[in-house]
Amino acid sequence: MRSALGALLTATVLMVGSSTALAAGPPATPADDAATQAKTTAATVARAKEIAADLKTASDAAAAASAADPDNVDKRAAAAAALAKYATADADANAEQKSLEGVNGGVATEGSIDPKHPADVHNPAAGAVKSDNIEWVSNSRGLPNQVQKPTNANGNYAGATFMHYEGLGYDFMLGDGTGGLSIWSLKDPEKPLFVGGVNSNDLRQPADAHGPEDPLLTDPASNTRGFYEGENPTVDSRRKLAYLARDPRSWGAGHPNGRTGLYIIDVKDPWKPKVVTYHWVPAGHTATCINDCRYIWSVGPANNGSKVGSTPQDVAGVLHPEWSGVPAFVTDVRDINHPYTYAKPVDAGRNNNKTAYTHSVDVDQHGLAWTSGFGGVRGYYTSGKHLDPTTGVERQATATDPIPYAGGSVPSLETPAQYAQVSLEHNSYHRTQAASDTSSPTVTTASGRTLNKSDLQYVTQENVITCTRTDGGGPGRFVIANLAGSYTGKAWDPTLDAADPNKRYFIEKLDDYTPLGQPGDLPNGSCSAHWFTVQGDMVAIGFYAQGTRILDVSDPTDIKQSAYLRIPSATGQLATNASAVYWHNGYLYVADYTRGIDVLRYKDPIKGVVQPKVCWNACDDSQTPAKTTSVTTPVGNGPGGTVPATLSLALGTPAAFGAFTPGLAKEYTASTDATVISTAGDATLAVADPSTTANGHLVNGAFVLPQPLQGLGTVKTYTGPVSNDKPVITFKQAIGNTDALRTGTYSKTLTFTLSTSNP
Amino acid sequence: MRRSAIALALMAAVVVAGCGDKKDKPEAAQLKGAVAIGVLAPTSGTQSARGADLIDGAKLAAGELNAKGGVLGHKVELQPVDDACEPYIAYESAKTFVTDGGGAIGVIGGVCDEVAEREVSTVDATEKPFLVTSATADGIVSEKTPFTFQMNGTLYQQALSSVFWMNYEETERLAVVQDESAESKSIAKQAIGLLEGQPKLVSLQTVEPKGPKVKTIAKAAIAAKPDLVLWTGSAQGGGELVAALREAGFKGKFTATAASEAPEFLSAAGPAGEGATVMATGSPQNTPTAETFRAAFKAKFNREPGFDAQQAYDAVQVLAHAANRAKSTDSAKMVAKLTELDPKFSNALGVVRFAPDHTLLYDNRVILKVKDGKFTWDRSLRTDSLG
């Protein structure tokens, strides 16, 4: 598969310096803490085993000392502490190993579609209303919207996501909606091939303790809706698992009778997906993987579900009548056979201290989890050690106890009295710069205003009405907001009061967009903003009946429509009802509530710097292909040779500064080298410090060198293909004569990135 | 023997096929007379009291079912078979069901770990549903035992529960003390393996006969400034440890795993045991929602039911429900219903449902707190009720 082209290659190396002579292996640092690691890799496994071996030696020595003097409490305590450290490290090594063993490439051979699935339907797109720079490519219905009506042309998809199958070498797309989960092969990315799924009848459970059980969907005359509806499906692409949130409105139920929950589906074999577990969770409108899919945050819906008549719906009493919606409930899915949901939710009090509907969780490129819902957007650390701005205390962030980062209420067009009751912050995207993006961290607007790129938050506000209506402030919009000033925990200020318009905290709105009045609008059609994805400075968004819109957000204060495509209703043709639009591997895939999946191609260049990941939901690796150009198909059968897409980076011996001498002003130098092979039209080798702790500085435990490490940034750029080039990467570290140095090793793990924008 | 079982099964299939073309006729033929449920229980040997308890629990369930019309309209009968809690006897006992399931629609039992391990492979090969009532060891069931399910939480689940409990308690610094038993070390090791830094393990010690005194161990644990001490060993040892901890000034929380739910813990701990928690296994004595069962058992047998009685009662009810739900005693159809979430499939702690690895999806772990020198109910650790 050509997806190797355009891929971004990263490697990490540990950068070390020491105030004493370097040992053979560096001691454990905070960066080695399992809780700070967002992902399991072969390197984390090896490092964990190395640390465990070192600690076992220390533990054995302490145990021997204690055994020689058995009732000496100090020696016994030292031995107990040393054994605890070793046991923790050993457990970590085992967990890392197990986690890595769970990583799989899926099946290695192509299967055949289960004959129980109906034949696919391909909806046409005659007379598409569109701009010249976008074209419709193909459509696939997948499973029908109602399993009991297999010939329905309607394919209902609330969302989709992608998964790379290493065993096969190409991607698959997973979409879900009322018909259940559908899976398509993207071996030919222009023409998704429906290969399998789990229809809504197979998802059903006699699960509804609050009313009748889920009905069988076998009567062709039945109009009962099936599964509902797994908006924003989340996947563990490394372990080949899909997680679908069950909304209480599934199988014809409604608020508050229906049960919420989580389906865990093994999709190692995309032709034969298998439901592992259905697990009750108090929330279930959307779900997002957190921390390498070890945890799931399930959120929504809008009702609090706390009462069925006068009877509490949830025996444990975790849902509260005073809430105006369901916040995020955390489920531990490290053991998918025994998932465990914590009673205490996160993102509570999101609307100025009133707990409200959390609608979506979207992780950014740096691992921050951003929640959207009534009351605005809020970002959280879920791993690593950070300062909690609400307490002023540095602590460990976890999926079950995250640390606030930034955010606040987003200005809407509702009246103050209506605020957070009509216009819903539906989903959002935090703009970040990857290490490979060495462009300016700021953007200057047409009016001369300078904004930090990382302060920009793209948000959809949902209000599903037609374009021309004005109730609730009018139809939902796409909004760009400014996080500046919100990093001190203002959105968590205990004095805020949702009921008092003067005691709400808002971040700044820079601009908004609605299709009304734009080329291609359908004024009397459904008009609200929905799910979107971002590539460079281009936003691809679904706008219900307004179809797909491509927005140019180069100037955050002046959003421009760059392209549009909507398909009108015609005889034998279903009209657009776009829920979500995804940039993926040079194409746009539209999850449509009526048409199924449409494939589009945007033909103009992508503005801005394309980030390595097209992040939404969990920011999963499979959402990453940065290809921005159209895909071409080889033509002709004549003689010739092909060059496989290659982007290869190998690192030499890690750079080491040797011993730093305290009290002596000196600049230390260390070098390493790399081997670069690239067949791309251009390439850039860069090195960055990915850590959020003392970024750009070497650290020794809690001690940070005051002067920054020099040599980060772009190492070398290539304007054409290159083979076995060996650039030397030099780092410098200045030490001042008054710089305090702590005994031990100062180090950092750096990320080397080889990227291309012209594969 | 396995070969002959297959041959007999094939012969039966031929006979059934010849009965006619209506789908319900095979059921009618199979269910002529009573519906039998096999019960593997130690009616002899050192565990005979547990065996009697198990059989009485099953009898209570069968009686209640029969009072309501039985299973699929047929009276339920029990087929007790003595396994003596001895592996070599258990193997022969299990073979009772090799030939066409011995006429049973399913089997329950398995009190001792080693015995259950021996029985599972044989009974599972008969392709009759087998509910292992009481054994708690890891690895007794799996996806490789497609017809067998474990009705008691495993040691691994006990470790998993301990980590969930520590999260409920918002524990940040944890000290673990274990004893020399394999079970104690297994729970401790598995719990540590699940921590992932939340809470942080700051001290780990083993109580050994020739090792330091428990007072030294207590002081060494306190030196690490834990806010919770977890004990995974015996009841007597747990009581001694909490007493030593309190005497040394420990003000934090103390939690022990299931083995400590015994009088030896209370007597060894004395007043120092007040406030301590035990992650116990749900039983008729410690679970208020089991009171209906407990009262019915006492009324019928004029004695208190034990843990095995409740497990057997639940197992018979679950088998019956699976058959009724499947509208069949066909093993595959019954097993399919066992893995389906059904709110009516419940016992004193809630829904009974099995995970893909054939252990309980939601296990039977409960929290007891020592109050006024007694174990008192605190809460269930299950989260399915959150949904």
Summarize the structure.
The complex is a heterodimer of chains A (759) and B (387). Chain A is mostly beta strands and 759 residues long.
Task: Please describe the structure with a list of short key phrases separated by commas or semicolons.
heterodimer; A: 759 residues; mainly beta; Methylamine Dehydrogenase, Chain H; 3 domains; 5-stranded antiparallel sheet; 3 helices; 47 strands; 8% helix; disordered N terminus; B: 387 residues; alpha/beta; Rossmann fold; 2 domains; 7-stranded mixed sheet; 13 helices; elongated
- Please tell me how large the radius of gyration of chain A is: 27 Å
Give average pLDDT of chain A, whole number: 86
Q: Report the order of strands and helices of chain B.
A: HHEHEHEHEEHEHEHEHEHEHHHEEEE
Please give the CATH architecture of the largest domain in chain B.
Answer: 3-Layer(aba) Sandwich
Biggest pleated-sheet summary of chain A: 5 strands, mixed
- The number of E-state strands of chain A comes to 47
Work out the helix count of chain B. 13
Number of strands of chain B: 14
- The strands making up the biggest β-sheet of chain A line up spatially as 38-1-47-40-44
Q: What proportion strand of chain B?
A: 15-25%
Structural class of chain B: alpha/beta
List the helices and strands and how they pair.
The complex is a heterodimer of chains A (759) and B (387).
Chain A: E1 9-18, H1 42-67, H2 73-102, E2 129-130, E3 134-140, E4 159-165, E5 170-177, E6 180-185, E7 193-199, H3 200-203, E8 234-236, E9 241-246, E10 261-266, E11 274-280, E12 286-290, E13 295-299, E14 307-308, E15 311-312, E16 329-332, E17 340-341, E18 358-363, E19 369-373, E20 376-381, E21 385-388, E22 393-396, E23 403-408, E24 424-430, E25 442-444, E26 450-452, E27 456-462, E28 477-482, E29 508-513, E30 532-535, E31 538-542, E32 548-552, E33 560-566, E34 578-584, E35 587-592, E36 596-602, E37 647-651, E38 656-659, E39 666-678, E40 683-688, E41 699-700, E42 703-704, E43 709-710, E44 713-718, E45 722-725, E46 728-735, E47 745-755
Parallel strand pairs in A: 1-38
Antiparallel strand pairs in A: 1-47, 2-33, 3-36, 4-5, 5-6, 6-7, 8-9, 9-10, 10-11, 12-13, 13-16, 14-15, 16-17, 18-19, 19-20, 20-23, 21-22, 24-27, 25-26, 27-28, 28-29, 30-31, 31-32, 32-33, 34-35, 35-36, 37-39, 39-45, 39-46, 40-44, 40-47, 41-42, 43-46
Helix pairs in contact in A: 1-2
Chain B: H1 2-17, H2 24-30, E1 35-41, H3 48-67, E2 76-82, H4 87-94, E3 104-109, H5 113-125, E4 130-132, E5 148-150, H6 155-168, E6 173-179, H7 182-195, E7 200-207, H8 214-223, E8 228-231, H9 235-247, E9 253-256, H10 263-269, E10 277-281, H11 291-301, H12 307-326, H13 331-338, E11 346-347, E12 350-351, E13 365-371, E14 374-380
Parallel strand pairs in B: 1-2, 1-3, 3-4, 4-5, 6-7, 6-8, 8-9, 9-10
Antiparallel strand pairs in B: 10-13, 11-12, 13-14
Helix pairs in contact in B: 3-12, 4-5, 6-7, 8-9, 9-10, 12-13
